[in-house]
Amino acid sequence: MRLELVKRPQRSMLFSALSPFIAFVLTAAAGAIMFALLGYNPVKALGTYISPLTEVWQLHELAIKAAPLILIAVGLSVCYRANIWNIGAEGQFIIGGVVGSIVPVLYPTYESWLLLPLMMVMGMIGGAAYASIPALLKVRFNTNEILTSLMLVYIAENVLDWLVRGPWRDPNGYNFPQTAQFNDYAILPAIASSSGRAHIGFIFALVAAVLMWFLMKRMLKGFEVRVMGASPRAGRFAGFSHGKMVFFAFMVSGALTGLAGISEVSGTINQLQPVISPGYGFTAIIVAFLGRLNPLGIVAAGLVLALTYLGGEAVQTALGLSDKVARVFQGMLLFFVLGCDTLIHYRIRLIGAKAEPAAAQPAARLEEAH
Amino acid sequence: MEILVAILLTVATAATPLLIAAIGELVVERSGVLNLGVEGMIIMGAVSGFIAGYVTGSPWLGLLAAIVVGALFSLLFGFMVLTLATNQVATGLSLTLLGLGLSGMIGAKFVGVPGPKLSNLYIPGLTDLPVVGRLVFGQDPVVYLSIALTFGVGWFLFRTRTGLTLRAIGDSHGSAHALGISVVGYRYLAVMFGGACSGLAGGYLSLVYTPQWTENMSAGRGWIALALVVFASWRPWRVLGGAYIFGAVWIGQLHAQAFGIPVPGQVLAAAPYAATILVLVLISRNKRLTMMNTPASLGQPFVPDR
């Protein structure tokens, strides 16, 4: 028995819409099996996993986790649509957070309404500049951007580590490796401080998603991105430059990722620490694919992936499982999304062991004839 | 002199996991498949190898378990990209993400537990020779195995008919299919070989290099192995050279930190990754040469039409 793919004459609209949901159900099923294998009641464990949805303050936490995921994934969707593989968002996130923190760390007494916009812009510049390194290397030296952007993640982690243990360490911080707490003017305001701590970074994410949707669907640049992704040759005939597209995609995603980084530092952590991201840059890759590389789909996908983080924490406290459960769920989700996407372009035919000889014979004879 | 010998010995242990993983990935890429899941397969090999070694008390059984788990884990990737024709870059990434998560979950109870360690070779007389004795006859067995593996893969790819077929599939899967070769079948075997190698590399990390389990202990070695394959322009012998250069960089930065060189430790820790970027730039600069060396079907999905 084996599987065979039969190409559909055109992409299936039905599966195009359904595949994220099928993937979601399959992930839940696989998760249930996993919990059962670990010796937990699967229904109860899954219930614990989604329990954060029942409390208002937890919904705030959901928004806090979803904001960076959506911002990063919206940027990554531009790259992936253009068939450019930026997988170093984690590093751009860190550098965005670092560059955006320059003013509040070095001038802690600077208090002005200008401070927050300045930090956000600097964060975006930092992220974009860091993302322009793999872009430059790809365009100028033909270097594989997957590997260079990923290597830069490790370098960014070391930069941040050096800063918070060295020159930027809080002199009054009892030698803890962290900067001083930011002053109130450097902290992103909360959306509704009476019910939880979600800050306006979530609004940034929603605005970015809508703007990007408009850019991709309604403007020439979006068309250019899609053409260059689908067929660089056709794009060249249309007068589009591949090099410029590489820079555009990397810098847009770097800027949005940098904004995510400084929003997280300013709104959630309020200072720099050796680690400022629980792998948002990598999880956002899953968000981008689960959202079908569509900015509006990414908003929904970002909320789902944010739930995997919160659910992981809930399972950890309630059942004593490792918080890595969240990563497992995220990995499974991406697998199932990619697998289900096959259904958009192909029909899957199951060929039974009995039927096979009959089906295979004419083909074999044909090959001989050739 | 003693210190130099000790350093050179550790260079080999740092180079060996890179070499094994890169040789495996080289075979996969020669068949036209790009598996970005090396990091995930290494870490799965590391955790399963450690647990098996810890439970049985035998590092050899640990390495065996690492190989088997690495191969099985790679089958997941193989099923996706070969049977379901999914995007290889995205699928490889998800294998890495899943591996990092799964290994952390499975290994949570084994963090900080001391495990068994594979002992070095000792041949009375030969190993006692000054200087060369320990370098040539006193390494751990996997070091020799990795060099034999390089020999074997070089011979297989360039001296056997099956190796020629594998390279042909990597350069033009359409033509190979038209000749009646089972493209998908060959690729499944290549992917599993790559998984077994990555698993062994992981088992080496947790049973020989540092005989214990820590989360994320692969520390980007899978990605460096991927870069090594490009650096080596898909030739086994150059992978060997590249792996030992990177092993030297890796050990060099550790020793520089220990010697208290007046540079922040983070600069040194970032050195292997910066070196990878530098090497990639140098090797990819010549666009024509790179295109000539790269397997032409690399990364492209293949669906046999009937």
Could you characterize what this model shows?
The complex is a heterodimer of chains A (370) and B (306). Chain A is mainly alpha-helical and 370 residues long. Helices cover 70% and strands 3% of the residues of chain A. A two-stranded antiparallel ribbon of chain A has the order 1-2. Chain B has 306 residues and is mainly α. Chain B has one domain: ABC transporter involved in vitamin B12 uptake, BtuC (Orthogonal Bundle). Chain B has helices at 2-30, 38-56, 59-83, 88-107, 132-137, 141-159, 161-171, 173-178, 183-209, 221-231, 236-258, 265-284, 287-293. In chain B, helix 3 packs antiparallel against helix 4 and helix 10 crosses helix 11. The longest helix of chain B is centred in the N-terminal third of the chain and has 29 residues, at 2-30. Chain B is globular, with a radius of gyration of 19 Å. Classes of the chains: A mainly alpha (370), B mainly alpha (306). At the A-B interface, strand 1, helix 7, helix 12 and helix 14 of A face helix 3, helix 4, helix 10 and helix 12 of B.
Structural key phrases:
heterodimer; A: 370 residues; mainly alpha; ABC transporter involved in vitamin B12 uptake, BtuC; 2 domains; two-stranded antiparallel sheet; 15 helices; 70% helix; globular; disordered C terminus; B: 306 residues; 13 helices; 73% helix
Largest interface: A-B, 53 and 50 residues
The portion of residues forming beta strands of chain A comes to under 5%
Category from helices, strands and their pairing of chain A: mainly alpha
Radius of gyration of chain B: 19 Å
Order of helices and strands of chain A: EHHHHHHHHHHHHHHEH
Distance between the termini of chain B: 66 Å
**How many angstroms does the end-to-end distance of chain A come to?**
27 Å
Quick structural summary:
The complex is a heterodimer of chains A (370) and B (306). Chain A has 370 residues and is mainly alpha-helical.
Layout of SSEs?
The complex is a heterodimer of chains A (370) and B (306).
Chain A: E1 2-7, H1 13-37, H2 42-50, H3 56-81, H4 89-100, H5 102-106, H6 115-141, H7 145-165, H8 201-218, H9 220-230, H10 232-237, H11 242-269, H12 280-290, H13 295-319, H14 325-345, E2 346-351, H15 355-369
Antiparallel strand pairs in A: 1-2
Helix pairs in contact in A: 1-2, 1-14, 2-13, 3-8, 3-9, 3-11, 3-12, 3-13, 4-6, 4-7, 4-11, 4-12, 6-7, 6-11, 8-9, 8-13, 12-13, 12-14, 13-14
Chain B: H1 2-30, H2 38-56, H3 59-83, H4 88-107, H5 132-137, H6 141-159, H7 161-171, H8 173-178, H9 183-209, H10 221-231, H11 236-258, H12 265-284, H13 287-293
Helix pairs in contact in B: 1-6, 1-9, 1-10, 1-11, 2-3, 2-4, 2-9, 2-10, 3-4, 3-9, 6-7, 6-11, 10-11, 10-12, 11-12
